[in-house]
Amino acid sequence: MGQERWERLSDTCRVLVTREHGFTTDTLLLAWFSLPRPGERCADLGTGCGTIPLVWRQRARAESILGVELQEQAAGQARRSVEENGFAGEITILRGDAREYKSLLPCQGLDLMACNPPYTSPGAGLLSADPQRRAARHGESLTLEEVAQAARYGLRYGGRLCLCLPAQRLGEAMGLLARYRLEPKRLRLVQQRLGKAPYLFLLECRSGGRPGGLQVEPVLLLEDERGRPTPALLEAYGEYRRDGGQEGD
Asked: How far apart are CA 168 and CA 152, in angstroms?
């Protein structure tokens, strides 16, 4: 296990991270894009060290939040973070395989589900020698189709699935999700700066939604022409700041 450290998400919330299990800008973007509405029942599949549930708890008033994580170390970090912040009554971390969703999720009992699945499809790209990083980055542990199956089971009619994936997988995702009656309704592309192609997309789908009516939001730029964070990125970050987030034990 890599050295543990506490990373500050806000003045009143911090998350335990290690070399193997931390979070990135993409994680914070998905947490912000998928913020629950008051009173909603939510789940984060492949929650890692639990950053998305913690952000949800800090920035929204969900009724209940569930984080599902396959890897024991990551699930342990997430549980410690939940306890450290006093959220044990509001956030539940389950160690389990999201492919066994029927034993983990309430049938049609969720209003919102988020997932930052492995970015590489099974059999594509170079595999990491580190099994924990390989599980996080490649679709060996959870494919996009398996995410769709879990969402169809766990989401109520009209419930929302929010995803974060590389831009080159947009066509694949739109077609696959629609086949599971998870109709794409909101899309936002993310690019580093002007003049660069989008590298990421954030997508919201509606369970049982009718085809059509996709809302394409303005491209989210992360940096301005001087390399400074844009207002949109700062809004997504909330109280988190890269330059001052790390804390000692």
From this structure: 24
Least trusted range by pLDDT, from 2-6, 19-23, 68-72, 121-125:
121-125
The token pair at 182 is 């998870």
- Of 170, 171, 150, 169, which Cα lies nearest the Cα of 161? 150
pLDDT tens sequence across 128-156: 445 555 454 434 579 999 999 999 999 99
∠ Cα 44 97 237 (to 5°): 25
Specify the pLDDT at position 203.
98
Question: Residue 225 corresponds to which tokens in the numbers above?
Answer: 């022409």
pLDDT at 141: 74
At 105, which amino acid appears?
Answer: L
Tokens of 160: 């929302």
Q: What are phi and psi of 45, to 5 degrees?
A: -85, 135
Indicate the Cα dihedral angle 161, 164, 170, 175, nearest 10°.
-20
| DSSP-assigned beta bridge partners for residue 115 | 45, 163
Instruction: Return the pLDDT at 80.
Output: 98
Instruction: Name the helix (H) or strand (E) containing 74.
Output: helix 72-84
Query: Is residue 81 within 8 Å of 104, Cβ to Cβ?
Result: no
What is the per-residue pLDDT for 127?
A: 44
Burial class of residue 66, CB neighbours in 10 A (0-12, 13-18, 19+): buried
Residue 247 burial (CB count, 10 A): 10
Structure pTM? 0.90
181 Cβ contact list (under 8 Å, min separation 6):
152, 207, 208, 209
